[in-house]
Amino acid sequence: MAGDVVEQQLNGSAFVRHLGAVTGDGRAGYAALADRVRTLLGDGRLAVGTRVPSERELAVALGIGRGTVAAAYEDLRGSGHLARRRGSGTWTALPTDPTSGPVTPFAPIGAPGPSGSTPGVIDLAHAAPAAPAEVVALAGQEALAALPDHLVGPGYDLLGLPALRTVIADRLTAQGLATAPDEVMVTAGSQHAHALVVRALARPGDRILLEQPTYPNAIDLVRHASARPVPMALDRDALGRTRWDVAAFAAALRESAPALAYLVPDHHNPTGAVMDPETRAAVVAASRRHGVPLVVDDCLRDLWLDEPVPPPLGAWATVPGEAPVLTLGSLSKTVWGGIRIGWLRGPRAVLRRVATSRASDDIASPVLEQLVALALLGRVDAILPERRTTMAARRDHLLGALARLLPEWSAPRPTGGLSLWVDLAAPRSSVLVEAAARHGLHLAAGPRFGTGGAFEGFLRVPYTHPVDVLDDAVARLAAAWETVDAGAPAMLSPVV
Ligand SMILES: Cc1ncc(COP(=O)(O)O)c(C=O)c1O
């Protein structure tokens, strides 16, 4: 294992706690066991680099035949999910070649994978739309034409091209968050901006507050920074719509004293919820009272589908010297994730700290991509109306298709964002995702969006694909659901 990844060793009973209720001998038993290990590995609940128990020890712990465990381990070795090391046992791994072995829907969100789609396989594990190809091509041409002007200098600008920072600042100002260009740093997407903030402002062992559920890569980021996630449960009203509980938020700040609090107030991922203006004011007031900086991920805010969202949460932070609000954004959802340009907006002093810690491993954003982003930002308001209409139609189509084929499920109609947060009315998300994979449908299971194995009863279903693909996906989902025994006892919550 490379670097500072902590390796761990699991004995038979600890491994069984991870596995939950996987039982049964013979062919079905070994396939189920291998599938379960792949699921846990892929969605992050079982760490890569974990030493697994011997076949005999696991067979005893599970109460199944040793031959079944041996066959499962063999299957997992074949698919690249287990690796033997001479003299030191068998360890969990992820396949290095994503096209080898069985197709798995459980890859960490954004994990390395083929850039195109696998024929016949529908990817609903990512909630990100395809690019508006013509607009991106035009922006590319414009960027290439502008490049020679930049070739005369060294090309390194830690904070980003001044022209791009100005356009980003103007855009934030127009949204209601008054911003000067020197309050903006260009990054490789909003996740990168988040990682830079965590690295600069949190130390190993610090606590970081996260909504529960939340964006899975944010959970992984906290863990990989050796910080400790403080999950703050979101509330649901009688109609199943997600709400922020300000009292719970303030209590979590008071009791846990986190170094940072990460929020997605506009089209929260995965629920699509929008924080109302009163809650924004109360959240900023609480963060100020407790001196906790807020990291506000606004990468989905432009994707409102029914009505515009309130000004960015940062606009409520008006008192100088208060706990800073750091706003993240990108072009990934409005235009295309492959652009890899985003931004961090915050007070100059915080940007200086972030820039200082960034410089040691990532000196500047690529100039050509920044020029593409600059050209795209000039066109984004022209792209968005059509994108909103398309996504709203797909959202409504998906809701209709689910209501017809899976009437026992329920999902509130989000007013924006890119996915539904579906209540399965049974704790079957992980097994359903496994079954869906066998039907060529990739999804991220509910527990991927929380800590401690929560959300086994939920599934995020993006509506980013065209309606015919969504119809096909829902048909596959319904077929997979038929194979999942919703009446059986719940799987044990995995230890995370
Ligand atoms: C809430 C949230 N934050 C960050 C990201 C990653 O965005 P980017 O491509 O800008 O890094 C996503 C993508 O799905 C997201 O939903």
Features:
single chain, 496 residues, Arc Repressor Mutant, subunit A, Aspartate Aminotransferase, domain 1, Aspartate Aminotransferase, domain 2, 17 strands, 39% helix, globular, disordered C terminus, binds pyridoxal-5'-phosphate
Structural summary, described in words:
- The chain has 496 residues and is of the alpha/beta class.
- It contains 15 helices and 17 strands.
- The strands form six sheets. It has a seven-stranded mixed beta sheet, with helices on both faces. It has a two-stranded parallel ribbon with strand order 1-2.
- Helices cover 39% and strands 13% of the residues.
- It is globular, with a radius of gyration of 23 Å.
- It has three domains: 85 residues, Winged helix-like DNA-binding domain superfamily/Winged helix DNA-binding domain (Arc Repressor Mutant, subunit A, Orthogonal Bundle), CATH 1.10.10.10; 107 residues, Aspartate Aminotransferase, domain 1; 245 residues, Aspartate Aminotransferase, domain 2.
- The site of pyridoxal-5'-phosphate has 15 residues, from helix 7.
Topology diagram in text:
Blueprint: E1 8-9, H1 12-19, H2 26-42, E2 50-51, H3 55-62, H4 66-78, E3 82-85, E4 89-92, E5 122-123, H5 133-146, H6 162-175, E6 184-187, H7 190-201, E7 207-212, H8 216-224, E8 228-233, E9 235-236, E10 242-243, H9 246-256, E11 260-263, H10 277-290, E12 294-297, E13 325-330, E14 342-345, H11 348-358, H12 367-377, H13 380-405, E15 419-423, H14 429-438, E16 441-442, E17 458-462, H15 467-482
Parallel strand pairs: 1-2, 5-16, 7-8, 7-11, 11-12, 12-13
Antiparallel strand pairs: 3-4, 6-14, 9-10, 13-14, 15-17
Helix pairs in contact: 1-3, 2-4, 3-4, 5-12, 6-12, 7-8, 7-11, 9-10, 13-15, 14-15
The protein binds pyridoxal-5'-phosphate.
